Amino acid sequence: MATNQLLFFSAKPYDKAFFIKHNKGYGLQLEFLDTHLGPHIVNAVAQGTFAVCVFVNDKLTAEVIEQLAAKGVKVIALRCAGFNNVDVEAARKHQIRICRVPAYSPEAVAEHAVAILLTLVRKTHKAYNRVREQNFSITGLLGFNLYGKTVGVIGTGQIGKAFCRIMLGFGCKLLAYDPLPDNEVKTLGVHYVSLEEVLKQSDILSLHCPLTSENKYMINQDTLKIVKDGVTIINTSRGGLVQTHDVINSLKNHKIANLGIDVYEQEDKLFFKDLSEMIIQDDNIQRLMSFPNVLVTGHQAFFTEEALSQIAEITLDSVYRLSLGQEPDPSVLLN
Ligand code: NAD
After folding, report:
1. Residues 61 and 110 in one domain
2. What is the pLDDT of residues 91-137, one digit of tens each?
3. Among 4, 160, 285, 293, which one has the highest count of C-beta atoms within 10 angstroms of its own C-beta?
4. Catalytic annotation on 238?
5. Are 21 and 124 part of one and the same domain?
6. 3-class DSSP assignment, residue 21
7. Residues 75, 322: contact at Cβ < 8 Å?
8. Choice among 238, 306, 313, 327 that is catalytic
């Protein structure tokens, strides 16, 4: 069996470009498919393929993993940090190793969260359209200062920490909730409090925790009852952290003043695709996009040259080592 085959799913032109460039030092045999991995396509995996390389919206259910195992696949390489789309237990059962890219330019995601936040609070998305129509009126573009505002950060890992640093630079007061508080974050001047206090006291909330079965829909009709009136919520983490229907209600009754999302629970049917000629059937995303105070980006927070280079380098290094029977750095392994 060839031990150097790496089959990509959901591969876009930029994936090919960065992986081919970085593969020069590894010499793995790369093959790219643009379809999502799921039960419908798993049969396309050739017998004896060593590794599959997947992204956030590929579905690695127990059923898919069982079929990958039957094909002889030994490694699932996630070219992302989050792994909520993989049944890790099923992979363990079938002795398929899983590697991911736990940290790649966390600043890329943190800076995008700030970009969304600044756009919303200074309404630059509206200003951009206005001036293109030679409308230089500023009526309706009134924003607010970030300086002096209380920013609540939920999850202070790599990305949350980078986000805290930036927001401290704006002169914000930083509150955070994380079940595993980080001493470095504390020394930056961030105050850890309970989740409830973060929700109650923050003018701006930014989500930077992984999606787990425990925190699914952490922003829901109950938690939205205790947030400040006129809160701004930014989610660059995972769509499932937010109950979309409840958020829409809170936008309608002005409880939420601004919402910025780079992720969406049903994004697998929408994001990373050009649907400009299609009739979108998802009424929730259409409703969200109809609000003037909602900004949606299509899971692009990670999308910088620096991040794509690191993703390619770390993924190829992990697969290469596993193909030689070596152990990659433990931080990249999920099992
Ligand atoms: P990380 O593992 O470094 O940090 C995650 C932190 O969240 C940890 O400190 C952990 O203790 C904390 N946490 C776990 N459960 C929590 C909970 N219920 N409440 C609060 N905190 C909790 O991960 P990271 O690199 O900072 O990435 C964070 C998330 O960002 C990823 O899980 C992924 O979902 C998302 N992400 C999005 C993009 C994008 O392009 N939009 C790119 C990369 C990562």
Report:
1. no
2. 999 999 999 999 889 999 999 999 999 999 999 999 999 999 999 99
3. 160
4. yes
5. no
6. helix
7. yes
8. 238
Question: Can you give the pLDDT at residue 240?
Answer: 97
CATH code where residue 12 lies: 3.40.50.720
User: Has 122 been annotated as catalytic?
Assistant: no
Return mean pLDDT, the chain. 96
Same domain, 49 and 89: yes
Pick the residue whose CA is nearest to atom 8 on ligand 1: 157
Q: Say whether both 145 and 63 belong to one domain.
A: no
Q: 152 in ligand 1 pocket by Cβ < 6 Å?
A: no
Q: Are 91 and 217 in a shared domain?
A: no
Q: Where are the beta strands (DSSP E) in the chain?
A: 5-8, 29-32, 51-54, 75-78, 97-99, 150-154, 173-177, 191-192, 204-207, 231-235, 256-261, 294-296
Mutational pocket test of ligand 1: of 178, 195, 332, the residue with most ligand atoms within 8 Å of the beta carbon:
178
- Which pLDDT band holds residue 2 (cuts at 50, 70, 90)? low
Are 143 and 276 in the same domain?
yes
Residue 141 sits in the same domain as residue 286: yes
Measuring CA to CA, which residue among 167, 172, 226, 169 is closest to residue 194?
A: 226
Q: Ligand 1 pocket, 156 CB below 6 A? A: yes
